[in-house]
Amino acid sequence: MKTILVPVDFSGTSTHAARYAQQLAKQVGAKLILVHAYEPPPSFPMVEGMLYSEESLRSLMKEKLEQLAIELDKEEPVIKIESMVMDGNLKDVVKALTDAMQVFLIVMGITGAGKIKETFIGSNTLEVAKTNTVPVLIVPELANFTSITDIGLTTDFRDVINAIPDKKIIELVKTFGARLHVLNIDFQQRNWNEDVPFQSGLIETMFEHMHPSYHFIEGENVAEGLSTYALAHSIEILIAVPKKHNLLHQLFAGSHTKEIAFHSKVPVLVLHE
Question: What pLDDT, on the 0 to 100 scale, is given for residue 243?
Answer without folding.
Answer: 65
